[in-house]
# Entry
Amino acid sequence: LEAKEEFPHKTLATDVMRPRQSDPPLSVLTQSGMSVEEVERLIADTTYSGFPVVISQQSQRLVGFVLRRDLVISLENARRHQEGVVSVSAVLFTECGPPASPSAPPAVKLHNILDLSPFTVTVHTPMEIVVDIFRKLGLRQCLVIQNGRLLGIITKKDILKHMAQMANRDPESILFN
Ligand code: ADP
# Structure
């Protein structure tokens, strides 16, 4: 995102964020309640660079953001080096998990790889501001929230694609470029 590129359009975060209406829903992790196997399946079934972590599927309240590569490394490490970890072991992003039953296999604690304050905007935030913040903070992605619920994600590539589309569509920008 070059600083020289202007973003003069009236677009809002909601116009650029994913998923689109026709897309599958956002792939999220819950802070507790998922097993090692379930998280591994999500990783295998998707190629996203990261996953928002929410309190629960029902609330969609944002807790943080975890990078795919950190997740992969931590799960591999736990499988290899943490005693007793199996497919049905719980994965916990909370600092202290819910009380586990004494017979449950040990949980994999991943609080340490969770970014607890990922950058967020609302659906109404003008893209002009989003682009400015991406540049200034060197962001790779930001999350889009409405009324406390996680609705979507915007990556740097999403913004670049959107800028290219706008440049093609807007007759003025074609005339003056
Ligand atoms: P990039 O945009 O650099 O290719 P990703 O591979 O992470 O980065 O994302 C690919 C596309 O999927 C983007 O359009 C992005 O908005 C979207 N996306 C990213 N993460 C998720 C996710 N966890 N769930 C659903 N869509 C996502």
User: Anything to note?
Assistant: Residues 18-19, 26-27, 47-49, 51, 153, 155, 157-158 surround adenosine-5'-diphosphate (CB under 6 Å).
